[in-house]
Specification:
11-stranded mixed beta sheet, single chain, alpha+beta, 593 residues, 12-stranded mixed beta sheet
Length: 593
């Protein structure tokens, strides 16, 4: 988890850091709420805080739950801050698990202390993009939070939180990624607005009244808190972590009204600290469900502050907003499926579409927050098992297509893009209408030597083993992405024509490994977990083509910008594919197939 921290330096223009403002130490910088941190793009199980001030450092940290004995005293490296807390009953919820709000308060304080250790002056919270909660802690366990600045920019710093000692290579990696996370952070608002404009083109999200849908009217919750001295720092500004904890409480109540179970906070998206709050302020928290996605629900929370005069006049200051994502379990600890939301009013629809756009951005950012070494997933090729390997390749693609939970994210002319978010995977489906016969599309798309003719991501593709009439092994080289080395792949392509009354053509793809072609230092060996084309005839002269890909870490960067809304590469590749197939038909290339 990353957070953005503000250091109160000499006054500077807000142009120094788009979306953030700075102020002298004697003032309360807009968006600053005491020692705190704001997670940005969190690495799994951790958090990154970014802060602002003279020299934007970035740091890292993570929370580790367990028990601690005297001989296990963790060592603190230079520049790090370590906090250990025992989980007491007062810190836990009704199920005996550590409250997410309490953990946010501890992490907020630790990240701020790391930032102040780097900067040498007081730091305050500026913003937080993402917090990811991967596990929980229970009463009696020890929470150890380690924070360290990873990078300084001009007016803010990023702090990463981790439960283990960092290795030098990892520290260098996080330092380089801090700039990329900051770029995504600053582009967030414009990206969101662009996606919202796109979403107005189609009416897919609007649900008609039907069984299994629900409205959000009953999920509206409001709460009021009076800021007292224990809630503030020595400058009198309300602790950022305290505000986050109060927001978590009201959001949990809102989510519980929809799920009728036990909601638990999974992640936080877009904490925005817009202005200061001080001792004596009345804080009004308003929460409501925006949308649901199978096993998760997004709750929006808005915070307004009132001093005595503003309270009497009913004129508050909007100081914070955030979007909290919850899962929920029943009494048997099984995940609950949330009902689909039925937007009714114009405001319902705005919040509904906004939740879809934010989810799309979160999916696109996942490759930034999970930069880890590629784990080999490919199957060792064995000619004696070619039949079972080919069949499992085809079945995996059919199973991926049949999964529930596909959400439409983009529609553009003949092209629709869907995403499927699962516990450990992100999948993409691109559907396109093609004005060519299904058998023609099948022959063109199943011959991967032709793919570089239309797919800009493919540089070369050659057959290295003609296993059978329906199975080939290809060696593929791909273009550079994110300034890295080019990637290469070895894939098994298994194709099937329709059987009996079925009218579906299948082209399935998955990675295999061959000892005869080891990884080359010139390329990054990549993996295809499950991908391919499903082609169905509409009539004798047209068809629909669906491309699916369950993405590995190495493939995700090619799709992330598209999913996140800041790239059109998938749409461009899909349009190129349509033109290639239709032109091949019109030019009579079918005669040479």
């Amino acid at each position: 988890m990353q957070s953005l921290l503000m250091l109160p330096p000499s006054p500077r223009s807000s142009e120094d850091l788009p979306g953030l403002e700075t102020a002298p130490a004697s003032a309360s910088p807009p968006g600053a709420f005491g020692p705190g941190s704001v997670p940005d793009l969190s690495p799994p199980g951790g958090a990154l805080w970014s802060g602002a001030g003279p020299g934007e450092p970035g740091g890292l940290g993570r929370a580790l739950a367990g028990s601690l004995s005297p001989d296990m005293e963790p060592k603190v490296s230079p520049g790090e801050v370590l906090m250990s807390q025992a989980v007491q009953p007062a810190h836990a919820d009704s199920r005996g698990e550590l409250s997410a709000g309490q953990l946010l308060k501890w992490m907020d304080t630790t990240a701020c202390l790391a930032a102040e250790k780097h900067a040498g002056i007081s730091c305050v919270t500026a913003s937080m993009d993402d917090v990811l909660f991967e596990d929980t802690a229970r009463i009696g366990q020890i929470i150890t939070i380690r924070a360290k600045v990873t990078r300084a920019f001009s007016t803010s710093m990023e702090v990463l939180l981790r439960p283990v000692m960092l290795q030098t290579e990892q520290e260098h990696m996080e330092h380089s990624l801090a700039a990329e996370r900051r770029k995504v952070r600053l582009q967030h608002e414009s990206t969101l607005n662009n996606i919202m404009k796109e979403s107005s083109r189609f009416d897919g999200p609007i649900c008609n009244e039907e069984e299994g849908t629900a409205t959000t009217t009953g999920t509206s919750v409001q709460s009021i808190e009076l800021v007292l001295p224990p809630h503030a720092n020595h400058h009198g500004n309300t602790f950022g972590g305290q505000i986050m904890a109060w927001m978590e409480t009201v959001a949990t109540i809102s989510a519980s009204r929809l799920c009728h179970g036990h909601p638990f906070l999974k992640s936080v998206d877009m904490f925005k600290f817009r202005g200061p709050s001080t001792v004596g302020d009345r804080l009004v928290f308003s929460a409501i469900v925006n949308n649901t996605f199978q096993n998760s629900v997004e709750v929006g929370v808005r915070v307004e502050a009132f001093d005595c005069q503003e309270w009497a006049e009913g004129r508050g200051r909007h100081i914070n907003s955030a979007f909290l994502i919850y899962n929920a379990v029943d009494d048997q600890e099984e995940l609950i499926t949330f009902p689909r939301i039925q937007p009714i009013s114009k405001d319902d629809f705005r919040r509904y579409q906004g939740a879809i756009a934010r989810r799309r951005i979160r999916l696109g950012r996942k490759y930034v927050i999970s930069h880890k070494k590629e784990v080999t997933l490919s199957t060792q090729w064995d000619i004696s098992k070619k039949g079972s390997l080919s069949n499992s390749n085809v079945e995996a693609l059919k199973n991926l297509a049949s999964k529930s939970g596909w959400e439409i994210t983009t529609t553009l002319g003949k092209i629709k893009i869907y995403t499927l978010e699962e516990q450990e995977a992100i999948s993409v489906k691109v559907e396109k209408y093609v004005g060519s016969p299904a058998h023609m599309a099948y022959h063109l798309l199943s011959d991967f030597t032709k793919r570089p003719l239309w797919d800009p991501h493919y540089i070369s593709c050659e057959v290295i083993d003609q296993v059978s009439e329906d199975d080939q092994i290809y060696y593929i080289t791909c273009s550079v992405v994110n300034g890295d080395k080019p990637k290469d792949l070895i894939v098994l392509v298994s194709r099937r024509k329709p059987l009996n009354n079925d009218n579906m053509y299948i082209v399935a793809v998955k990675s295999v490994s061959l000892p005869s072609i080891p990884p080359s230092p010139q390329y990054i060996r990549s993996e295809v977990i499950c991908a391919g084309f499903l082609i169905q005839a509409v009539d004798s002269s047209s068809c629909t083509v669906a491309y699916l890909n369950q993405m590995s870490d190495s493939i995700l960067p090619y799709f992330a910008g598209n999913i996140g809304g800041w790239s059109k590469s998938i749409e461009e590749a899909a349009a190129s594919c349509i033109r290639f197939i239709e032109n091949a038909t019109h030019d009579g290339l079918k005669s040479v197939l």
